[in-house]
Design a protein that fits this description.
- By secondary structure, the chain is α/β, with parallel strands linked by helices.
- The chain folds into three domains: 146 residues, HUPs (Rossmann fold, 3-Layer(aba) Sandwich); 179 residues, Alpha-Beta Complex (Argininosuccinate synthetase, chain A, domain 2); 32 residues, no CATH class.
- The chain has twelve helices and 14 strands.
- A five-stranded parallel sheet has the order 3-2-1-4-5, sandwiched between helices. The protein has a five-stranded antiparallel sheet with strand order 10-9-8-13-14. It has a four-stranded antiparallel sheet with strand order 6-7-12-11, with no helix packed on it.
- β9 and β10 form a beta hairpin.
- The chain is elongated.
Length: 397
């Protein structure tokens, strides 16, 4: 039986209930932990609420810098996109939150950790794989897999019974999760994959229809695979993200509407806004196109689906993800330079790229006369590569 529990706490309906439920069910001391990942909430108010609803202590930590430098940037260096569309904004946040929970559990000599993720989603896996990877002997409590509550209304009734303040009791049209990298919308009115999201459902960006009628140019500066500045100004990782979220968001860039395959086997419809991440992904690939060797680029690209899957499934702290990260990072040393982009009504268009490490040579690419490449050499190259095709056809005759 757990005696002291560190809870991943957001201040929403679910985790507000969890504090009281843990005290009642386990007779345990509950320590709440809220991570500032750039979600834009009043975290001091959330901290006060946790204590008022039964937590013996509440931690609030600003993790934005660590989140961008040690989690988002490595993921962007890998060009990670799950199932070709999802940029993993929720997925990449969970291992950091879980890691800090374990740090607090060790500091506070707690014997258990808990989270408010449901038993049908991916987050329960992401949290718990991290817990066990970092502290194998930890006890994990997942209230949604244990308690008898079966609806939002039953949670509200429990909150009212125990005097727990919760958000507005009217059923929300959808659920959201936000951090400095993205915001997600799921559930409710979005559960019908044929239904178009409402026009007012935008947070980090405007709709392309409402974006300015005039394009803008921006310049993204990179050093060794990481973005370091915008328009000639070098910025901290957090400042860079906030600046670029504003630029991309104002121009209607960064929304996707997808049906994804959850790790637990359920298909789920989600709408995501990732303004800065979308621009950085496009810019990074553009710079790699002139700085990476062809075979290195192709081999790395073959690894992207596996790398993205590991993040989506929750294996950030696995040896295989770390192995892939080492390989990916080893080729980023020459990904240094500047990319020029045009932003216009939901479009992010690459219009220029340059690098002191560029492998692009105009004298080789040109159609004009030159002395480096002998076009006659291509004949033997083609014939050698055609040999197996010719043999196959001869044998079939």
């Amino acid at each position: 039986m757990a005696k002291k529990v560190v809870l991943a706490y957001s201040g929403g309906l679910d985790t507000s209930i969890v504090i009281k439920w843990l005290i009642e069910t386990y007779n345990a001391e509950v320590i709440a932990f809220c991570a500032d990942l750039g979600q834009g909430e009043d975290l001091n108010a959330i901290k006060e609420k946790a204590v008022k609803t039964g937590a013996s202590k509440a931690y609030v930590e600003d993790l934005r810098d660590e989140f961008v430098k040690d989690y988002i940037f490595p993921m962007l260096r890998a060009n990670a996109i799950y199932e070709g569309t999802y940029m993993l904004g929720t997925s990449i946040a969970r291992p950091l939150i879980a890691k800090k929970q374990i740090d607090i559990a060790i500091k506070e000599n707690a014997d258990a950790v808990a989270h408010g993720a449901t038993g049908k989603g991916n987050d329960q896996v992401r949290f718990e794989l991290t817990y066990y990877a970092l502290k194998p002997d930890i006890t994990v409590i997942s209230p949604w897999r244990e308690w008898s509550f079966d609806s939002r209304q039953s949670l509200i009734e429990y909150a009212e019974k125990h005097g727990i303040p919760v958000p507005a009791t009217k059923e929300k049209p959808y659920s959201t999760d936000r951090n400095i990298f993205h915001i997600s919308y799921e559930g409710g009115i979005l559960e019908d994959p044929w239904s178009e999201p409402p026009i007012d459902m935008y947070t980090m960006m405007v709709s392309p229809e409402k974006a300015p009628d005039k394009h803008i140019y921006i310049y993204i500066h990179y050093e060794k695979g990481n973005p370091v500045g915008i328009n000639g100004e070098f910025l901290s990782p957090v400042d860079l993200f906030e600046r670029l979220n504003k630029l991309a968001g104002d121009n209607g860039i960064g929304r996707i509407d997808i049906v994804e395959n959850r790790y637990v086997g359920i298909k789920s419809r989600g709408v995501y806004e990732t303004p800065a991440g979308t621009v950085l992904h496009i810019a990074h690939r553009a710079l790699e196109s002139i700085t990476l060797d062809r075979e290195v680029l192709h081999l790395r690209d073959s690894l992207i689906p596996k790398y993205a899957e590991l993040i989506y499934y929750g294996y950030w702290f696995s040896p295989e993800r770390e192995m892939l990260q080492t390989a990916i990072d080893s080729i980023q040393k020459n990904v240094t330079g500047t990319v020029r982009l045009k932003l216009y009504k939901g479009n992010c268009i690459v219009v220029g790229r340059k690098s002191p490490k560029s492998l692009y040579h105009p004298e080789l690419a040109t159609f004009e006369a030159e002395k480096v490449y002998n076009q006659k050499d291509a004949e033997g190259f083609i014939k050698l590569n055609a040999l197996r095709l010719k043999v196959k056809k001869i044998l079939e005759s």
